[in-house]
Design goal:
heterodimer; A: about 180 residues; alpha/beta; Rossmann fold; 6-stranded mixed beta sheet; two-stranded antiparallel ribbon; 7 helices; B: about 400 residues; alpha+beta; Beta-Lactamase; Alpha-Beta Plaits; 3 domains; 10 helices; rod-shaped
Chain lengths: ~180, ~400
């Protein structure tokens, strides 16, 4: 796990890379472990998602809306995959032409969340949240943190409504109580 | 002198057993050879399939555990391996992450039936790397076991055993058929030979058997039998001739003394049984010696032949005449008619003989004979008595006939 993160780290061009690299120096500590776990899971989910008309290796933009609950140092690591640039945006910024491929929904007003979910419907955008343990608010993937591990679950309805293709193996891991 | 062939030592066997053994040997060899070949080829092929199977299993596993490796999820890794656990012939599975640490491991609950065979067959695990977007994120290792191979070998051996059984049955059937086709004709030949030897059936012949070699043997035996039959015929006629010679006089072709003795015994027995009478006439030439001396042996012989011919002329059917000595003859008149006196018979023969005989050297000779009669049972009840009486009567007659000096 750590090695893959090191490998991923070398391909980051965004400013978060520095933060990510700096955080790797910290070996111990619950928060740091969670950060690494979150980034790993995020990278995995992204790597198994396919955007329509995607060119291999095309860079992806991740827009973070609201405040992530698990970690504030989000820098998804995708081994050998596309570079992902992370931007913090407002809900209005996203809907107003933010050019986001991935939306990370942190803690935010319910209205904003509903607006974003509604906006995403029919668009090639991957939605991930860490503020919905039951995964019922409409985001495609929901992360949750427990001591020592990060897990994710899948909202199949949301994925079905979107135009993205997600590898069924991931759906299986995420829906069959897997992904601890 | 018949030379017996040397006795064969050791137990003897029948042709059928021999053929059976021969057949069984050949078929056993064929079955064993083909069985071994098939088994070897099968094992080799199976090995290839097993290798490919393991490779495919490893690749399937690599696909299945890929997300698990991405998310570093042991539970998902185990789920990804599940399809492989159901494949027979897999003993152990292991998923390693990119640092070589085991993420998940599984060992088949079914023990390896033959670890030695497994180590021979699958010395190393089959490994497949798990790649994600071109970079290696982990490794899956698959160990095979020899259960499928053992199943195959077991099945092969079972099939071999079945083949052996069929072979044995087939051999029996074939041997039976051979017995019918080969042993039966041979037996026929043996039967003919046996018949000929035991019952002197020289007319028996071996019938055509339809097998070239046996027919040749049969033909030779038949030719041998032809020769034997020829010899047998010659021998029998020679025997008859010898028997005739033994019982007959060479010169006059009349029965001789021994034949007469036999005949007399028979007549006595038969007359006794039937209560009949018969007469024995002792005939002796009176002047034969003189003829022999004066005219030579040829003349004597001619006289004897003539005398026997004359005696024969007087015989009825059933009568019997024999030459029992140089110029002595005996006639049996059997049966003797009660109305005829024995002297009449003597007179009849004497008158028949008294006709002159032409000698070979020219000239004639008048034979005289003396005749003595004895009648059974009037004069005697056995041969000796009858002959004594007849002889005495003849002698008396001779005294009467002797020319007075």
């Amino acid at each position: 796990m750590l090695v893959s993160l090191f490998l991923m780290g070398s391909s980051f061009a965004a400013p978060q890379l520095a933060i990510q690299s700096a955080s790797q120096t910290i070996v111990e500590g619950g928060a740091d472990g969670t950060t690494r776990g979150v980034n790993r899971v995020l990278g995995g989910i992204i790597s198994y998602a396919k955007w329509p008309g995607e060119r291999p290796g095309a860079a992806r933009t991740m827009c973070i809306v609201g405040d992530p609950r698990l970690t504030d140092r989000i820098a998804p690591a995708v081994a050998g995959g596309p570079t992902i640039s992370v931007r913090r945006m407002t809900a209005a910024g996203v809907t107003g032409g933010g050019n986001c491929d991935i939306i990370f929904l942190g803690q935010m007003p319910v209205a904003d969340r509903q607006r974003l979910i509604a906006w995403v419907r029919g668009r090639p955008v991957l939605t991930i949240t860490d503020d919905d343990p039951n995964c019922s608010f409409g985001a495609m993937f929901c992360l949750s943190g427990r001591t020592g591990s990060v897990s994710f679950s899948v909202n199949l309805d949301a994925i079905g409504r979107g135009t993205l293709r997600v590898d069924p193996r991931v759906l299986k891991i995420g829906s069959d109580g897997g992904g601890r | 002198m018949s030379g017996r062939p040397p006795e064969r030592t050791g137990p003897r066997t029948t042709l059928q057993k021999l053929l059976s053994r021969f057949h069984f040997g050949i078929t056993l060899f064929a079955v064993a050879l083909s069985g071994a070949t098939i088994l070897l080829a099968g094992v080799t092929t199976l090995r290839g399939y097993a290798d490919r199977n393991m490779e495919l299993a490893a690749r399937l596993g690599a696909y299945g555990v890929e997300p698990a490796l991405v998310f570093n999820d042991p539970q998902a890794a185990r789920e990804g391996l599940e399809p492989l656990m159901r494949i027979p012939g897999i003993a152990r599975l292991r998923v390693l992450d990119d640092r070589g640490r085991a993420l998940s491991e599984w060992t088949s609950p079914v023990g390896d039936p033959a670890p030695l065979l497994t180590s021979l067959f699958f010395p190393r695990p089959f490994a497949a790397t798990v790649q994600r977007n071109g970079s290696v994120i982990g490794r899956i290792e698959v160990w095979g076991d020899s259960s499928t191979l053992i199943d195959y070998v077991r099945l092969g051996l079972l099939a071999g055993l079945g083949c052996l059984l069929v072979t044995a049955l087939g051999t029996i059937v074939l041997a039976r058929r051979f017995e019918y086709e080969l042993v039966k004709p041979l037996n026929e030949i043996a039967t003919v030979a046996h018949d000929v030897r035991l019952h002197r059936r020289f007319d028996k012949r071996v019938q055509p058997l339809g097998i070239a070699e046996l027919d040749r043997l049969g033909g030779d035996i038949n030719a041998l039998l032809d020769e034997l039959q020829g010899w047998q015929g010659t021998m029998e006629s020679e025997k008859a001739l010898l028997a005739h010679r033994a019982s007959h006089d060479m010169l006059t072709a009349m029965p001789n003394r021994s034949a007469f003795d036999e005949q007399l015994a028979l007549r006595i027995q038969s007359a006794k049984q039937r209560g009949e009478r018969f007469a024995v006439l002792f005939v002796d030439a009176d002047n034969f010696k003189a003829a022999n001396d004066n005219h030579g042996h040829r003349a004597g012989d001619a006289l004897l032949v003539a005398l026997s011919a004359r005696i024969k002329e007087t015989l009825r059917k059933g009568d019997f005449a024999a030459r029992i000595g140089g110029d002595e003859f005996i006639v049996i008149i059997d049966p003797l008619d009660p109305g005829i006196a024995p002297e009449t018979l003597a007179a009849r023969i004497q008158s028949s003989v008294s006709q002159p005989v032409t000698l070979p050297g020219g000239g004639e000779y008048r034979l005289r004979i003396s005749v003595g009669v004895a009648v059974y049972p009037d004069h005697g009840a056995d041969a000796t008595a009858l002959l004594t009486i007849a002889d005495a009567a003849m002698y008396a007659d001779k005294m009467v006939n002797r020319p007075k000096i």
